[in-house]
Design brief:
The chain is mainly beta and 322 residues long. The protein has two domains: 36 residues, no CATH class; 209 residues, no CATH class. It has four helices and twelve strands. The strands form three sheets. Strands 1, 3, 5, 6, 7 and 11 form a six-stranded antiparallel sheet that branches. A four-stranded antiparallel sheet has the order 2-12-4-10, with no helix packed on it. A two-stranded antiparallel ribbon has the order 8-9. A hairpin with a 2-residue loop joins strand 8 and strand 9. The longest helix is centred in the N-terminal third of the chain and has 8 residues. The chain is flat, with a radius of gyration of 28 Å.
Length: 322
């Protein structure tokens, strides 16, 4: 490996300008190439020309990026979660607002055995504090994210299915808020709640009422002061919760075509696409059947579900010269 040796300058001694220029003039014509630079350590916007990762002959789509995308909570984990359970493939719809943000992908073409590619992805994940202590017995939702391989495919449409979609479990990350706040909301302990309680099938059913809507059983708590209305205590419009989740996801994966370590379906297909997929859910619901069943052992009304957000998303790949 070639190298350049720079002479040492003694501490606390004046450095002559000519000596300094002579010491570093070798850098004027330095050419970075695969012999003296670790190409895989570079970001996509830092790669000089004429080095080993600038080969693009087998890359159909090299990158995918977006600024922000909202991801909805899903209660049907097995249907929307590409990383759910043990099956090696995922054959359910890919949805831009549920599990395939912005339908991101990169595509490799005309692949032969031994072709290698470095696939990198990064993003920020914002998970709201939805007051899980109030609504979900303290069990906050989980956010999963990772790479999947999609053989034989050069495009994705919202709701489309590829039965051979194969999760790459070594790239999978799980995020969940450890501590959660409590939404200022119906606790069934107010005097109004007790006074308004009625007998239903022999059992007391405590219901909190808002002052502005006597028949609207919804969020209520007088601890915060101010206007005492349903809107004032809604977890979305009523103020910021204390434990918002902020997570950074980054991954680097070396894909070698037809390598024995690659699992899943259709590993020999000469067309392979990759995407970052996710799943947001798994919070434990309190079991309420309607928004008017609040109070008692069941707690308060059903929660207002808030979306997570994926921001500053980048997915790209390098082709490694053989």
């Amino acid at each position: 490996m070639p190298y350049i040796k720079v002479p040492e300058f003694e501490s606390n001694k004046i450095i002559d300008a000519d000596d300094f220029n002579r010491a570093f003039e070798a850098f004027d014509n330095l050419l970075l190439d695969g012999e003296n630079f670790a190409d895989e350590s570079l970001g996509i916007d830092q790669i000089p020309k004429k080095i080993s990762l600038t080969e693009t002959s087998k890359i159909g789509k090299s990158s995918s990026s977006f600024t922000t995308k909202s991801i909805s909570q899903s209660s049907s984990a097995g249907l929307s979660d590409p990383f759910h359970g043990l099956p090696p493939t995922f054959s359910e719809p890919r949805l831009t607002s549920v599990n395939c943000p912005n339908l991101n992908r990169i595509t490799l073409l005309n692949l032969e055995k031994g072709d290698k590619f470095i696939i990198r992805a990064s993003c920020v994940i914002d998970i709201p504090d939805g007051g899980w202590r109030t609504f979900y017995e303290g069990i906050a939702p989980r956010f999963k994210i990772g790479l999947v391989r999609m053989p034989g495919e050069t495009s994705i449409t919202d709701g489309s299915v590829n039965e051979n979609t194969s999760p790459i479990h070594s790239t999978l990350a799980h995020y969940r808020i450890t501590y959660t706040g409590k939404v200022p909301s119906a606790s069934s302990l107010s005097k109004e709640a007790s006074d308004a309680a009625g007998i239903d099938a022999g059992l007391w059913k405590y219901r909190d009422r808002t002052e502005d809507a006597p028949d609207n059983y919804t969020y209520r708590d007088t601890r915060t002061g101010g206007e005492d209305t349903a809107e004032a205590h809604n977890p979305i419009g009523g103020g910021s919760m204390p434990f918002q989740g902020y997570h950074n996801y980054t991954v680097c994966f070396l894909y070698e075509h037809q390598d024995s370590s690659i699992t899943g379906a259709d590993t020999t297909n000469s067309i392979q696409s990759f995407s970052v997929m996710c799943a947001y859910g798994s919070a434990r619901n309190g079991g309420l059947t309607s928004n008017t069943e609040s109070g008692g052992a069941k707690g308060c009304v059903n929660p207002v579900e808030q979306d997570a957000k994926i921001r500053d998303f980048n997915l790209f790949c390098y082709q490694v010269k053989n």
